[in-house]
Amino acid sequence: MISWWWLRHGPTHAKGLVGWSDVPADLSD
Question: Is 4 helix (H, G, I), strand (E, B) or coil?
């Protein structure tokens, strides 16, 4: 479930939705 957790809670460009978003996580940073 770790990968799912990071997909849901990882960093995204949608700063207002950090922590819970369906926006794909941008892990390239």
Answer: helix
What pLDDT, on a 0 to 100 scale, did the predictor assign at position 6? Answer: 57
Burial of residue 12, with CB atoms counted within 10 A of its CB: 0-12 exposed, 13-18 middle, 19 or more buried? buried
Helix or strand or coil: residue 14? coil
Residue 21: other Cβ atoms inside 10 A: 17
Are 8 and 20 in contact by the 8 Å Cβ rule? The answer is yes
Which one, of 5, 22, 2, lies nearest residue 14 by Cα? 22
**pTM exceeds 0.90, yes or no:** no
